[in-house]
Amino acid sequence: MDRSIVRGKRKVSIQSEVGIHRGVGGAVSRDDVNKGIGEPVATNKRRVIMKGFALSVIIVVFLTFVHFVPAEGGTKVRTVQYQVAGATGDTVEGDGGLRHMNVMCQEFLSNPQARVCTSEELMESPDLSIITGFGGWVQPVISGAVVLPSGAAEVIDMASGLHSGTLNCDHWHSTTGNGLVWENSHLSVNACTTVRRVICCTPEVTTGEVRKN
């Protein structure tokens, strides 16, 4: 029997206009329709389509930022690492100030991202030939302190293991004490009164791969 209801002046079939949501092949009564149970089939299809579209967008965005390498089972990553780019032509004493030393590097290399190399960056740079024969100030990476037999404490540079009462001329604001320098193809400690170039680094972008074990 065709069960139908009247909406205004139009008579419509419940079975043809209402989507079944209470089990496959289940019936929807007149009371169900009046209570708002059951949805139009067209509306339900639109929801399925929209959910599928949203899932596709999420997958595309994810694959855009993370590049998988199925053959190797790893993931490609971009790494920005500062590397040695040269030594300034101008010189400065140990009280030149870190900001001024960075500006010296930027102007010398015409690169706004250039700055004083840290000892760690210098030691990890693949090519040091560009500073062969040049000496210059280097920013130490302090890893701790050592206490001498005399009781005096000295800070330690992580990359070189060198230690002194100060390794950055009191944050590059004093000519008293010592500063870390690159000299004769190795790191050493020099008096802050010395006039030296500045060893500069710039960011280098590399693409590597993280492999699964």
Structure description:
- 21% of the residues are buried.
- With 213 residues, the chain is of the alpha+beta class.
- β10 (178-183) and β11 (186-191) form a beta hairpin.
- It is 27% helix and 32% strand.
How large is the share of residues in beta strands?
25-35%
Helix proportion range: 25-40%
Secondary-structure-based class equals alpha+beta
Overall mean confidence score, pLDDT: 77
Order of helices and strands: EEHHHEEHEHEEEEHEEE
Largest sheet: 7 strands, mixed
CATH class (first level) name of the largest domain: Alpha Beta
Characterize the overall form: elongated
Question: How many beta-strand runs?
Answer: 12
Compute the number of helices: 6
| Rg value | 35 Å
Secondary-structure blueprint of this entry?
Elements: E1 4-7, E2 10-13, H1 14-17, H2 30-35, H3 41-65, E3 67-69, E4 74-87, H4 98-109, E5 115-116, H5 119-124, E6 136-137, E7 142-147, E8 153-157, E9 163-164, H6 169-172, E10 178-183, E11 186-191, E12 197-211
Parallel strand pairs: 6-12
Antiparallel strand pairs: 1-2, 3-4, 4-12, 5-12, 6-10, 7-8, 8-9, 10-11
Features of the shown structure:
213 residues, alpha+beta, Mannose-Binding Protein A, Chain A, 7-stranded mixed beta sheet, 3-stranded antiparallel beta sheet, 27% helix, elongated, disordered N terminus
